[in-house]
Structure prediction request, 802 residues.
Amino acid sequence: MRLPLLWLHDFCRPDLDAHALAHRLAMTGTEVDRVLTHGVSGLEHFVVGQVLEAEPHPDADRLTVCRVATGKGDIAEIVCGAPNVAAGQTVAVAQPGAVMPDGTRLKAAKLRGVKSNGMILAEDELAIGTGHDGIMVLSEEIVPGTPLASVLPIATDVLELEITPNRPDCLGVYGVAREVHAATGAPLAPVPWAEDPGSPGEVEGAEVVVEAAELCPRFTARVFDDVRVGPSPPWLKARLMAAGQRPISNVVDITNYVMLLTGQPLHAFDLDRVAGGRLEVRRAGEGESVETLDGVARTLDPDVVLIADDEGPTSIAGVMGGARSEVSGETTRVLMEAATWNGPNIQRTSTRLGLRSEASGRFEKQLQPEQALEAQAVAARLMIDLCGATLRPGTIDVGESPPPPAHIHVREARVTGLLGVPVAPDRATTVLEALEFGVAPAHGGLDVTVPHFRRDDVTREADVIEELARLVALEELPATLPSRRGTSGGLSPRQRLRRAAAGALTGRGAHEITGWSFTSAALFDRLRLPDGDPLRSAVAIENAMSEDLSLMRTTLLGSLLDAARHNIARGAGELRLFEMGTTYRAQEGEQLPAEAHHLGVVLTGAARPATWRESSPPPADFFAAKGLLAALLDTMRLPWSVEMSGEPFLHPGRAASVTAVGRPVGWIGELHPLVLEAWDLDAAAGFEIDLDAVADASAPAGAYRDLTSFPAVRQDLAVVVDASVAAGRVLEVVRGAAGSSLARVEVFDVYRGAQAGEGKVSLALSLEFRAADRTLTDEETSKQREKILAALGRDLGAVARA
Prediction:
């Protein structure tokens, strides 16, 4: 909502500039999105002038050379292109140095050889209207040289507000003025609907029947005769323009003005075009259609509420009027409608039709029945003053009486208990009365009566205390610790594990990304997943933002590859990216999907930066990914291994499954060439593991153990095994046979060739034996070595290589 300060100041003028007022409103719960200036700048260069002479331009048929008095004896020569300019007129003048609404700074210029020292202005050139057919002609009583800003509202600061759904009362200027009054203490003018020229009773020649009473709690209407449709006065057009509304005609502008002022939308019908002079509020028939004011014929369903006359639908209730009964230049009789509609139904209709309006945006937040006659009172006065209309006696008012106001007892002790600071009863009374709550002293607190415009928002004691918090106590709340014991926060084991995982990866140069939790069905084809693959068990989103974001993701690989492609396209070729996030898989027979927290990594480019000693470092291949995986899982003190396997999106022979404590927890490998092609990548490797499964298998915190002062015994061992035997399996057998005295074992060389034999591979192992209480002897390590060789021969068919 756009709030022009010149309009706000009609009702409440705080001693604050626009930015200070924006801060004060934000601190009391009314968010201000931005502060902007509407209209012109450099106001000292805008003055009232009088056209002394107006002669045709010597070299242009449509231009006029004017001599204009601008005060203090100054005469300016101005070239004007308006067809209605004439000598003797009092006009609005922009002099050189003036800044126009589009930001252009006016300068003296030559137009077809004649120098022009300014502009004679039309209303659209001041952003106070849309007229551009001719210049504005002002009252002859205004003295030339008078500052234009004192005559016309040519500039104002505007606050762009974000009104929360529970505060429809702040969707009107007066509602915000009430908030400003309560927040700053500035005086508040009486409500603009205090004087109502209307009267109750039946209205001759007009009738309203409400059939869908559950969707229309109240329908009011008044009839105006002798209406003269024409342009609105400048003050009205200026307020609408600053609030983001386009002026149309005085009758239509009155409906928009009253809506922006009171928050209650209205609609004006040309009574002569209402068949039978009778309106009916009912549900639409199946397939029934209506042409709205935007010229579009819309097909409706029975959940849509219509306003119809004897010839059919005239408008969609609460959303938009119909073209058949709209006000035109020939209108002389107007039926002014102000009704209350069921908010959820209006929201449903607006969404269903894809048709939002200023009216529907207010009605869907549930306005109250009392607001209808408030708006009628303001509209009636304006129709009489601006349109010369005659208000026909009576007011059509269909609907049940509004519910009585709610009464809430607010305990002083409860206020202190919830807020942590006391609020004096006198101060609480002042604030609540400023918000138009009724307040009466009561035992131990206050009895509060809720105003009708806060009926749905303030329903209990805590809601009233919230009003006191935002307007009194919020900035005075002390910084205190909770009074209860045992409330200190801490991380859960899984949270600690996730932080440890992130620390292990970032410590090795990886960068964390955050991708969408949504994906598309096309991702599965790009990953070469066959039908029936578990990763295709995705959950569809009913109200998807787009086809590309129509499914919940089942893997992190898609977002990681998207991020890799984005970075590589911008020159960052060597990447270590990781993501931690939730994946979702549909479960047969279950309403909710299975959710798992995964960690994924993608590597591209070189495994490490090039140096002067190594111009071509190794690529980020399977082993680079495995090194990062080892750093991750070893940090978690988790026994793990990899076994050769294949996922459809991984390179055959360069892929493996990851196992921890005997259960699979993920995959690792290089990406398949066809997958790389789909993402425009040259090469990439990575892994993805289920962090929830890792957490279940991870060991508890390890106990501290002193480092031994006794030296280690180091030996090398070479064995020949079948080429199909994984090196990890060899290490597993070695560790099992050696027992606790084996401190470390690793493969330091691999040989394939004639000396190893066909179909064989020779693995060179480095063994390190260590005891905590003594130095091991050669005899002890020899026995361990023999056990290792025996186990390798028995389990893997390995033989020692000389």
Observations:
- The chain has a mean pLDDT of 91.
